[in-house]
Specification:
about 20% strand, alpha/beta, 11 strands, two-stranded antiparallel sheet, about 200 residues, 5 helices
């Protein structure tokens, strides 16, 4: 990555994380509810039995309602779990309201179950992904660890690819983001106001 792209990404991360932290509890709850409705109304959601979500962290738009709705609709919910260093990759673990949780090295709760219960990303129907920023070309800016990029990099070569959707506040949308060859392009982004689809 060239130095200017790295600086731009760092500045965007800093700016948007500050914006997210300034959203009131009431606004955040309303946005999370609207986003959940936008997701549930998708035909792809209705027809998908296995969905990977995540637990909200660092001011991200809330996923609690989504995770509850997935289970209410008799679908199977999975959550990411960090693989040990190295490499920067994720397991996807089954999640229920009674699942034991443990915080990872970043302080994010993860399902504390044996990893032989993990599912391959290619076996999922939908993967819901956190993000710091996105643009209308389908570029996603994460926290910089590259966990989703590395985990999902092989998906285009698989016979079956899940629908990969970012979740965000509308204000996280940018005109254009610096993109690198290894950045995984998402299929769409759901916000509290819109659903964006990207042609790959």
């Amino acid at each position: 990555m060239n130095q200017s792209a790295k600086v731009i990404k760092r500045n965007i991360r800093q700016s948007i994380r500050q914006q997210r932290q300034s959203i009131s509890i009431k606004e955040s709850a309303q946005a999370a509810e609207s986003l959940c409705k936008n997701l549930v109304n998708l035909d792809a959601y209705q027809s998908s039995p296995t969905i990977a979500s995540y637990l909200t962290f660092d001011g991200e738009i809330g996923t609690q309602l989504i995770n509850q709705q997935i289970q209410k609709d008799k679908k199977v919910c999975f959550l990411p779990k960090l693989k040990p260093w190295p490499p920067n990759r994720l397991w996807f673990m089954p999640y229920t309201p009674n699942a034991p949780l443990n915080k990872n090295r970043y302080g994010i709760p993860e399902v504390d179950l044996p990893v032989d219960q993990a599912i391959r990303p290619s076996q999922l129907d939908i993967i819901l992904m956190p993000l710091v920023a996105f643009d209308e070309l389908g570029n996603r800016l994460g926290m910089g660890g590259g966990f989703y990029d590395a985990t999902l990099a092989h998906l285009p070569t698989m016979g079956r690819k899940p629908l990969c959707l970012g979740l965000a506040y509308e204000q996280q949308k940018q005109d254009i983001l610096p993109a690198e060859p290894w950045d995984f392009q998402i299929d769409g982004v759901i916000t509290e106001k819109n659903v964006y689809w990207f042609s790959q």
